[in-house]
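Most newcomers find our protein records easier to grasp once they have seen one. Each record describes a single protein and holds just a pair of labelled lines. A learned vocabulary of local backbone shapes supplies the integers on the structure line. Nothing more is needed to start thinking about how sequence determines fold. The record below serves as our worked example for the rest of this section.
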Amino acid sequence: MTTTGACTVREAVGAGDREACFAVRREVFVEEQGVPGELEYDAFDATAVHVLAVGADGLPLGTGRLLHGADAAGRTGADASVGSLGRLAVVRAARGLGVGAALVRGIEDAARERGLAAVDLHAQTHALGFYERLGYTAYGPEFPDADMPHRAMRRAL
């Protein structure tokens, strides 16, 4: 668990936390960005490590997930020592408060706890600077995902 001035970040436990994670993703990706719900939620949600950021009032502010092992293989070049960070979302009212960075660090902590050596992610191109400031390096060409341009990025832990 990590606490910043704006939030507490923890691994999601139980159905209530998981629903809070899905509600944030629905608000940000489905409602704001227009990602179809059938693309936003997938079979990996069942086995992923979900991370939840909550404010002092207990309301959900953001979420992200970590894929590892066989679930991450398609995103990490089949390198079992690398996890895949994804579905990072922060509600509009909490943006600019450090919630996103706290979530990334929480996911990295979860990756370390599982013995991973690095974390990959697929960043929307407008978010490259955010991830670069957190130590991630882009590699490979730009590609579409849910009709939005993305780049692959990696950070060694």
User: Anything to note?
Assistant: The chain has four helices and eight strands.
